[in-house]
Amino acid sequence: MRKGLDHFLPVLTERIPELAPLALRATALRPRPGTPTARDSSVGGPVLWPADEPWPHCEQPGHAVMGGETRPAGRVPLVPVVQLFARDVPELRFPEGKDLLQLLWCTLIHPREQDAPLPALHWRAEADVLARGVLRDIPRPAEGEYEDEFLPTPPCTVSPVVSVDHPNQDLPEDLRARVLELDQGFDRYPELACVLETKAGGYPAWIQPPDWPVCDCGERMEHLLSVTGDEHVDMDMGDGGGVYVFLCRRCPGFPVAHRHDCH
Ligand SMILES: [Zn+2]
Ligand SMILES: [Zn+2]
């Protein structure tokens, strides 16, 4: 996406040094179809789940599916979306003693949650799961218990690449004006600033105006993960949108929030 525009960012950061402190490192996960095991980082692959821990189900009432049909409340199994081992994403900060991050979600549409899937994050220690025994059969949602738009298929391995993100729509107004001036009306900056791709860290590549969640402690949450479909991962997510997962590291238990962004 940034191809051919790479020369422009150094020009920008040289002429507008105030951009530099806004840079954030991101790890693009670059999922590719494969056969990940529970011991691999993956998108839509099996997760390393302790055998003695019940598989999570969503019990939210008022599930909807695309087209507006509402489903009765029921226990719907969550599906694995992203699994990351610390060894594969050294730029990602894990909580003390943890080295495994799992993002699961209920793929159905939750009208009370921005018509988005409902994510759940789990931080674990790989050794702890191995000591407890690994769940062999991960429940899959039955027909009618999942929404294709948010079901990551096929299972993918990841090839993480570190990149540098700048804020797109979050750019302060005075800087935006200076960027536009240098850009001479080409509007290249939003594409350069950050990319909507499945990634850890960096900035959400907001399509709609930014909508950062604020934690109960009053602080703006940190962008942890963006998840989107691409040419390899079949998820439409509302016309090429994404789901962004945020957390607060200041509060006990690292509370999370999410946003569904789409065209
Ligand atoms: Zn649900
Ligand atoms: Zn907080």
Summarize the structure.
This protein has 263 residues and is α+β, with helices and mostly antiparallel strands.
How would you describe this protein?
The chain is α+β, with helices and mostly antiparallel strands. The protein has a single domain, classed as YwqG-like (Hypothetical protein YwqG fold, Roll). Helices cover 12% and strands 29% of the residues. The protein contains four helices and 16 strands. It has helices at 8-15, 126-132, 173-183, 189-193, and strands spanning 24-28, 31-33, 42-43, 57-58, 63-64, 70-71, 76-77, 79-85, 100-110, 116-124, 156-158, 161-165, 199-201, 222-228, 242-247, 256-261. Strands 12-1-13-14-15-16 form a six-stranded antiparallel sheet, with no helix packed on it. A six-stranded antiparallel sheet has the order 2-11-3-8-9-10. A hairpin with an 8-residue loop joins β15 (242-247) and β16 (256-261). The relative contact order is 0.20. The model has no long low-confidence stretch (mean pLDDT 91).
Characteristics:
263 residues, alpha+beta, Hypothetical protein YwqG fold, 6-stranded antiparallel β-sheet, DUF1963 domain-containing protein
Give the topology:
Elements: H1 8-15, E1 24-28, E2 31-33, E3 42-43, E4 57-58, E5 63-64, E6 70-71, E7 76-77, E8 79-85, E9 100-110, E10 116-124, H2 126-132, E11 156-158, E12 161-165, H3 173-183, H4 189-193, E13 199-201, E14 222-228, E15 242-247, E16 256-261
Antiparallel strand pairs: 1-12, 1-13, 2-11, 3-8, 3-11, 4-7, 5-6, 8-9, 9-10, 13-14, 14-15, 15-16
Bound molecules: zinc ion (2 copies).
